[in-house]
Amino acid sequence: MTYRYERLGPDQLPRMRSLNRLFGKVFDDRESYLEAPPTDAYLAERLADPSFAVLVATTDGEVIGGLAAYVLRKFERARSEIYIYDLAVDAGHRRRGVATALIRALAPLVRETGAHVVFVQADPGDGPAIALYESLGVREDVHHFDLVLR
Are 69 and 82 in contact (CB under 8 A)? Predict the structure, then answer.
């Protein structure tokens, strides 16, 4: 099976919406990804923002994987970091190198932004994700907190 990888631009809203459906399915979180979809204008603005990147993997024109990442410009040095916020591959296409290829497809963004690191989080029970990330980088055990500020 042949996969194609590309970064989405503001003119590719149908693919972005397909990726959101995939995220909702894979993460079993349809509420977050599908119940209150953003407007086309909002999505186009996000996809036009150079500090946000969405990459998709397709086969036969269908979105079967993707990632969303943010470029974080640092203050302590003139450099950036890239944070992979979401990464998912449809179950029928896993273990074929799609996730690894999506991560590696960030290389042009790394060069373009001068990013010194790409980082990602994984839930403690997600063995396949942890194994993938350990194969590509160095593991750091940290705690994640969602702070509710009103």
Answer: yes
Mean pLDDT by groups of 10 residues along the chain of 150 residues: 96 98 96 95 98 97 98 93 97 96 96 94 90 92 89
Are 109 and 53 contacting, i.e. CB atoms less than 8 angstroms apart?
A: yes
**Helix runs in the chain, H state only:** 13-26, 30-34, 40-48, 98-104, 107-113, 127-136
Give the per-residue pLDDT at 143.
86
Output the pLDDT for position 92: 95
pLDDT at residue number 23? 97
- Of 35, 38, 58, 56, nearest to 46 by C-alpha is 38
In this structure, are strands 52-59 and 115-120 parallel, antiparallel, or unpaired? unpaired
Assign a CATH topology to domain 4-136. Answer: Aminopeptidase (3.40.630)
Q: Could you give the 3-state DSSP secondary structure of residue 10?
A: coil
The candidate with the shortest Cα–Cα distance to 63, out of 38, 43, 92, is 92
Domain boundaries, the chain: 4-136
Question: What's the token pair of residue 36?
Answer: 């209150």
